[in-house]
Amino acid sequence: MNYILSFIVLALDQISKILVLKYLKNIGEFPVIKNFLHFTYVENRGAAFGILQHQKWFFITMTILIVGFIIIYFRKERGYPKPMMIALSLIVGGAIGNFIDRVVHGFVVDFIDFRIWPVFNIADSAIVIGQVLVVYVIIKYDKLEQKEM
Fold first, then answer.
1. Which residues carry out catalysis?
2. Which of 10, 72, 101, 119 is most solvent-facing, going by the fewest CB within 10 Å?
């Protein structure tokens, strides 16, 4: 289940970015709901909010370490709550999606633009949702070994 969810996130992310590169890159922006939701082509050479610009190798190295750790965790731990495993699956899928962008293009393709927030992509969304779920599990459970919610 963990790998399937990671793969679904990765596939949705990469398909959306292929479409963005093919159809949106040349026009730059497409309003979906005017003044609320636009698809805006952005080449992000940093991390969230554009911080740490041009640190490609740092992000590649960190992604390999984090994803490697989570995969080892998947293989070793079977008793953690389902929300934790879902969270880590989302993080892995999103991290690999952005990793592929950095390796192939040298930047991450962002395109979801709500105008009041920095432009992001499906991988970013999965990572953030995964992080929120991790925090939820940490707050909800006294001991991560508990299986019931």
1. 110, 124
2. 72
